Amino acid sequence: MAEKDKEILDSIAKGRDNEALGALYKISLPKIKKFILSNNGTEEDVKDIFQDTIVVFYRQVKSGKFKSELDIDGFLYSVARNLYFKHFTRHTRKNVLVDSVAEDKEYEDLLHQIIGKERRMLIKKIFNELGPTCGELLKLTMFNGYNLKQISEKMGFSNEGVAKTKSYKCRQRLIKLVQENNLINFFKS
After folding, report:
1. Residue 128: CB partners within 8 Å, gap ≥ 6?
2. Whose CB has fewer CB within 10 Å in the chain, the N or C terminal residue?
3. All domains of the chain, ordered by start, with CATH?
4. Is 13 left (phi over 0), alpha (psi -120 to 50) or beta?
């Protein structure tokens, strides 16, 4: 854990909330503000989302659910991003429903494209870390729907049993990478 993170958690534990808040504003607000403003948000959105993000963080810390191995800045950014996407969707829906249902669909599609692009980039990064054999095998099973017989033929395995064993090991590596990178919640939403 970074020293700055230890200091923030220590300040919260000792009831020095102003000290902790000052550090959180200094460390995370600029990145969150840049993200929101670059995604059609307003200064008001920045204030609201950042306040809500801090509330989520404080609740996690006070309830003991915040994992000390997490980077606080990264955690806050992820929470803010998710809150903003939810806010953006709600806000967009309210305004667009007045104008037209078709426009609402366009905004929703745009939001899904943004989220989808971010997910695709993360998936690509993780699959690159898996290596070429596991990456190809999992792409065939997860995205192309190949069965074990097709996989063993396509990848040159001697039989379906080898494909099954390799598939299991690759899935385990994938799960481990997702857990190590704290991406489980990212893929759930």
Report:
1. 135
2. C
3. 1-99 (1.10.1740), 119-189 (1.10.10.10)
4. alpha
Q: Please state the pTM of the whole predicted model.
A: 0.48
Residues of the chain with pLDDT under 70: 1, 90-119, 181-189
Amino acid at 3: E
Show the tokens assigned to 8: 């923030």
Contact between residue 152 and residue 171 where contact means Cβ atoms under 8 Å apart: no
28-52 pLDDT tens trace: 899 999 988 888 888 998 999 999 9
Query: pLDDT tens-digit profile of 158-182?
Result: 998 998 999 899 889 888 887 776 6
CA distance 184 to 92: 27
Q: Which one-letter DSSP state was computed for residue 139?
A: I
